[in-house]
Amino acid sequence: MIKNKTFNIMPDKNGFFGNYGGQYIDEKLKQEFKKITDTFLFLKDDEEFNNELNLLLKHYVGRPNPVYFAKNLSEKYGAKIYLKREDLNHTGAHKINHSIGEALLAKKLGKKKIIAETGAGQHGVATATAAVITGLECDIYMGETDIIKEKPNVDKMKLLGANIISVSKGTKTLKEAVDAAFSAYLEEYQTALYAIGSAVGPHPFPMIVEHFQNIIGHEAKRQFYELTNTTPDCIIACIGGGSNSIGLFNAFLDDGSVEIYGIEPAGKSKKENAASLNFGEDGIIHGFKCKLLQDKNGTPANAYSIASGLDYPGAGPKHCYLKDTGRVKYELISDKEALKAFFELSKTEGIIPALESSHAIAYGIKYAKENPKKKILINLSGRGDKDIEFVLNTCKY
Ligand SMILES: *Cc1c(COP(=O)(O)O)cnc(C)c1O
C-alpha cells in the first residue's frame, strides 16, 4: 500500500484523483462547468445552504437513518454484523441524498430544470422527487426497453410530474439514455443542470455527488461508536458508479485499522459482468477517465449485472485511485451469491434488501464466516421492494 498523508483527497485543479477523472467535454461547456465548480465550492461551506439541505434531509428524507445491529445474522455467522439503513430513506435508497443536493445546487445556480438519465428508474424517481420538493422542472431520459421493463418506476415519475423522454437508439437502455441526456444538456445548459446519478462523469460531478453522500459515513461512524465504543474492523459497500460506497468509505479512509471492501458485480461470468475495477482498463466514458470495461477499439462494453443499479461499464474516479493505492480492496460477488443474500437477509432479519445491496450483504456473510471475532459494518444502500416481482417470477434460485 502507498503511504499517503491522506487517502481522502479532493480532485486536483484539472479534476483528477490520481490518474482518473478529468473533464473530457465539449469546449462550449468549459465556462459553465467552472461556474458550477465555483458555486459548489462556495455553497458546501455556506451556512444558509447547509441549513436548507439539512432540514430537508432530516424532515423529508428521514435522516439520520439508524445503524442496526443484525443480531440474528451475527449469531448465525459468528462475527458482529451491523447495517447502515439507507433503505429507510424516503424513496428507498441513498440516491435521494445527492439528488436533493443537486436540486438545491441547481436552484442556487438560477436554473429552472434538472435533466437526468435513468436505467432501472431509481435515479429517475429520486431526481423527480427532489425536483418536486425544490420546485424545479424535471426531464428524465430513459431507454425504450427500460420504459417497458420498469413500469412501476415510470408510473412513479409520471405521478411526480417528470417529463419522460423515450430513447430509441442502440440497445435502448442506460448507456444511450446517458448520451441522450448529455446531448439535451448541451443545448439547455444555460437554463438546466445535469443531475448525474452516481459519483461519475466529468469534473466537478464526482466531487459534488461524493460530497452529498458523505453524510452516510459521518453518521455511521458516530452511530457505530455510540453502539460499540469503537470503530468497525471492516466496512463493506456495493459499487455501481460508486456513490453509496464512497459516501461510507471517506469517513474511514484515514483510519488504517479499518479494512475497506468495495463489492463489484461478477454477474454471470468473466464475459457478462460489470466489474470495471477488477476487469477494466483505462479508458474514457461520459466525459471522464476511469477503469472501463471496453472492446478492442476502446468502445465501452455493455455491462451486465442482475442488479440494474450496478451495471455501469465504468467506475467513479476516486475508486480507481483508491484501487491503485491499495487502500480499498475491490472484491467480486456473482448474481447467484447476491440472490442468496437477498433471501438470507429477508429470512433472518426481516429486511428485504435491494439486489444491489445484496452484493454487499453476500460479501459481509462470506467475510463473517472467515473472521468470526470481527465487527463488520455493511451499507444497506436500498430496499428490495422494486426487485421482488423480478426475483420471484424471473430468477432461478
Ligand atoms: C443505484 C444504486 C446503487 C449503485 O449506485 P452507486 O452509485 O454505486 O451507489 C446501489 N444500491 C442501490 C439501492 C441503488 O439504487
Task: Walk me through this protein's architecture.
- With 397 residues, this protein is α/β, with parallel strands linked by helices.
- It has 2 domains: 24-56 and 95-210, Rossmann fold (3-Layer(aba) Sandwich); 62-93 and 214-394, Rossmann fold.
- Helices cover 44% and strands 18% of the residues.
- It contains 16 helices and 14 strands.
- The strands form 4 sheets. The chain has a 6-stranded mixed sheet with strand order 3-4-14-9-10-13, with helices on both faces. Strands 7-6-5-8 form a 4-stranded parallel sheet, with helices on both faces.
- β11 and β12 (288-292) form a beta hairpin.
- α2 packs antiparallel against α4, α5 runs parallel beside α7 and α14 crosses α15 (355-370).
- The radius of gyration is 19 Å and the shape is globular.
- The termini are far apart.
- The model has no long low-confidence stretch (mean pLDDT 96).
